[in-house]
Amino acid sequence: MPITRRRRAMFFFIALGVSTLALAIVLNVTWIIVNWRSFIALLIGIPFFLLLIAGLVLNTVFLVREVHQNERQNSFLNAVTHELKTPIASIRLYLETLQRHEVPAEKRREFYGIMLSDSERLLATVEQVLKAGEVGQRTRNQVRLHIDLDEIVREAIGTTLRRHHLDGSAIEFTAGGLGMTTEGNPEDLRTATLNILDNAVKYSPQKPRILVRLEARGDAWLVLTVTDHGLGIAPANLKRIFMRFYRVPARNVFRVKGTGLGLFLVRSIARQHGGDAYAESAGEGQGATVVLQLPRSLQPSRFPVEADA
């Protein structure tokens, strides 16, 4: 459904709700004026009037939320379709070229590298969608192991550099010292860290320059801070970017690829580990900072700990 049709539907429901609300107020005020002499009628009518108004307001809010939700889901389906179709088309093109033509060894190696990169992009998209479904079904992390978060972050930085073909200077990492340990699911925390880094690179259309810092704040928390110098985030979107399927509207001619699940996964995983995630930005064009906060573990666990679901 085109965006204009969705917006028309949303405006229609808003106008319908407001019109119905206005009509209810006029009718009930008229009824009260006519029956003001009857105390019992007023006593019975006014509560019903208030309930009617409340019902109309809630109905309008629900309909508008449903329209927004459908709009985000449609955008998600379009984004996922694009993210799946593009690498598949690229891989097929290079395979057809290798099948139909004699290609020099050096060129073949280049093709193999491109196809491998496209297959990794395809796999990353599939894993993100599957992880979103898996995480959405859990209320708490199930298996907790003692994890060195410093090691997780360093691995994620290496993966991000390879995935986006960046040199080591693109990401600067500083750690606050020893004891950067927490308890949780290593795969989930690796996914959250990769999503934050991937998001920082994608929203840096020029040469990425990303600052990553891991530090302990007292004995209670570990804080991972990832700062980019890219497109920035408008204040109205700072909370919305963590919603499922939400993507910041395209600005100018630059549109960031993605599914709208990355930061949703980050916050979901953080909260399932007893922490949280949030974003900061001075505004559009002034870069952004995403913060992942996790409970600090000072005593290593000898065995996996089963958490309550």
Annotation keywords:
309 residues, 2 domains, five-stranded mixed beta sheet, 8 strands, extended
3D architecture notes:
By secondary structure, the protein is of the alpha+beta class. The protein has two domains: 1-137; 143-306, 2-Layer Sandwich (Heat Shock Protein 90), CATH 3.30.565.10. Helix content is 55%, strand content 15%. The protein is built from six helices and eight strands, in the order αααβαββαββαβββ. The chain has helices at residues 3-34, 39-100, 105-136, 149-163, 186-202, 262-272, and strands at 143-148, 171-175, 181-184, 210-217, 221-228, 276-280, 288-295, 305-306. The strands form two sheets. The protein has a five-stranded mixed β-sheet with strand order 2-4-5-7-6, with helices on one face. β4 and β5 form a beta hairpin. α1 runs antiparallel to α2 (39-100) and α2 (39-100) runs antiparallel to α3 (105-136). It starts with a helix and ends with a strand. The model is unreliable at 301-309 (pLDDT under 50).
Q: How are the SSEs ordered, and which strands pair?
A:
Layout: H1 3-34, H2 39-100, H3 105-136, E1 143-148, H4 149-163, E2 171-175, E3 181-184, H5 186-202, E4 210-217, E5 221-228, H6 262-272, E6 276-280, E7 288-295, E8 305-306
Parallel strand pairs: 2-4
Antiparallel strand pairs: 1-3, 1-8, 4-5, 5-7, 6-7
